[in-house]
Amino acid sequence: MQLRPRPIFPLALASWRKLVTLVAVAWLVPILVQLVPWSGAQPLSAHLVPVYWAVFATVYFCGGAMGLLVALAMSGAAFFNLGVPAVGPAEVMALELVGFVGFVALLANHWPCLRFAAPVAWLAANGLGVALQWALPVWGSPSNPWELWMTSTTTALGGLGVLLAINVALVELLPKDCDWDSD
């Protein structure tokens, strides 16, 4: 029996290439959304939540571990490239993205043909972010967490629609094994 040391981070060279490509695409999508002319009170990315698009596609195709790496890379990219104003919101967004990856991975593994997994995961991750802001006074506690969750959800309704469209397109055009009774 020959023993081989386990790699510290078990990604093959092909996986590293895929990861770099996914991070590049995930970084490019929000930049392109920011280039769209917009004169609203909030940035267009607050309404369309483009950071979540590529993260969802990564989890759908490559699984939760790869999605987590892309999500963490995207939180850093949003902080440095898109002008998130302070460290607090960037940390909350990173926690929301990690929660989003977890919820999407859970839903995609249990119900691969679920057409509204991405919006449901976003709502749950946003609720997790609001709950963490309320429970931990590090980022400033919102006076009314329910109102904050409703406001952020109302702001992101367009993005939830885009996530739903991406989710439906992936399930319909590139379905995973949808035989739920095969277990």
Would you spell out the secondary-structure blueprint of this structure?
Layout: H1 13-34, H2 44-48, H3 51-62, H4 64-81, H5 87-110, H6 117-135, H7 145-155, H8 157-173
What can you tell me about this protein's structure?
The protein is mainly α. The chain has one domain. 70% of the residues lie in helices and 0% in strands. The chain has eight helices and no strands. Helix 3 (51-62) packs antiparallel against helix 4 (64-81). It starts with 12 loop residues before the first helix and ends in a 10-residue tail after the last helix.
Determine the oligomeric state from the structure.
Answer: single chain
- Level of helix content? 55-70%
Total beta strands? 0
Mean pLDDT: 82
Q: What general form does the structure show?
A: globular
**Uncertain segments:** none
Distance between the termini: 35 Å
Count of helices?
A: 8
State which percent range the strand residues make up.
Answer: under 5%
Largest sheet: none
> Which structural category fits the helices and strands?
mainly alpha
Counting structural domains, the number is 1
Rg, Cα atoms, Å: 17 Å
Order of helices and strands: HHHHHHHH
Which features does this protein show?
183 residues, 0% strand, mainly alpha, 8 helices
